[in-house]
């Protein structure tokens, strides 16, 4: 019986694209997170750990079956020998006849995580999102690169309010990773930098926001959110004074910033919320484009009070011109 709403084949297609290159994530600002390894485990019916056969990279010998019927060896046509024969891999497929997917390297720490995931799987599928989030939040500084990446991807799929509430250790080397780390992990690392309360991250967040806006990257929303989390009212003023009120940003750039403002309006402290109300309402009175964007981001159900102060767009008045005999219109 399948474990998720989607078939595992659909999930695997997304996972393959995530492995091929950086995917965009972060549950709040404009793009849908790729399925994580946990999502794939939930969707699959057959899960094994295997090692490449020495001298034949496209053949893997199964050492452990975690889910589904036992199998001795697996043939993956086209697979190249990029891993040592001693390295274990996690493979999964949809049912007994679907194609196998080489998902991730399994070191000792990843094997322990897989065991914990399988033990918790039923509870997580029944809505145990808080437990799932807390489990992976504790792993952001794991020694295994694969586990660290999975932990960040799991945090990346969480709603921002849940991310604020969860107990999080300080991420080691976060300041450097904001600049040099993988592109697909920069948004979640930016959010964690803002939530850390460490003012030492301010300069890099500001420079990365400017860079993201210049190159029209969707990551700008994460940097803006982090800065507002870190500096509150001061950051709201800076975003409006430097970027929104001068009027030089494209619509996608404005949308990224307004998404951050809307998010912090729902989750921020009272003084930050008041600053957002005042500046959004003021700019909406002077820019129909911005007003339209604001109304799209600040939905009535989540932000009714703010939506009420955003002026409705004034439709252009149609003037009826008189005929020649009627003289000049007043």
Structure described in brief:
The chain is an alpha+beta fold.
- Average of the residue pLDDT scores: 83
Principal-axes geometry comes out as elongated
In terms of quaternary structure, the protein is: single chain
> Quick one: how many beta strands?
5
Terminal Cα span: 76 Å
The SSE order reads: HHEEEEEHHHHHHHHHHHHH
Strand order of the largest sheet: 3-2-1-4-5
Which stretches are poorly predicted, pLDDT < 50 over at least 5 residues? 1-9, 11-25, 315-330
Helix content: 40-55%
Beta-strand content estimate? 5-15%
List its salient traits.
330 residues, alpha+beta, five-stranded antiparallel β-sheet
Describe this structure in words.
The protein has 330 residues and is α+β, with helices and mostly antiparallel strands. Helices cover 53% and strands 11% of the residues. It contains 15 helices and five strands. The chain has helices at 8-20, 37-43, 108-125, 129-137, 145-156, 160-165, 174-180, 186-196, 202-214, 220-231, 233-244, 251-267, 270-286, 288-297, 300-309; strands at 46-53, 56-67, 73-75, 88-93, 101-106. It has a five-stranded antiparallel β-sheet with strand order 3-2-1-4-5, with helices on one face. The chain is elongated. Residues 1-9, 11-25 and 315-330 have low confidence and may be disordered.
